[in-house]
Give the backbone structure.
Amino acid sequence: MSVSFNHTIIGAHDPALSADFYLAVLGARPAPSWGPFINIQLDDDTLLQFAPAPVNDPIHMAFLMNDDEFDRGYNALTTLAVEHWADPQMTRPDEISTDEGKRVYFKDPSGHLLEMLTQAYL
């Protein structure tokens, strides 16, 4: 068996709100939940587990997707009126970057900085 990423726990002010946000923007699917976790699953079967926790140090996560999924996710961001930027420094609001594929940065309901991109860095 090769090594692959299986799951991560994401601290959230409101786990249900965060899970719903990721479902809408990333097009993920609901997964069985247990204990304090609200779970969703990405297309590659990676499990994202949202747990109630203070968010003192937001994290960054990037999600690689094809053009159609990016466009669907970007439409969800604009429909939900989510502030977004073309750069991680947040100097180009309401834009996407098209320098290397498509890329956009935005924050989830708990303040984590997320990135959707259509071309991998490596």
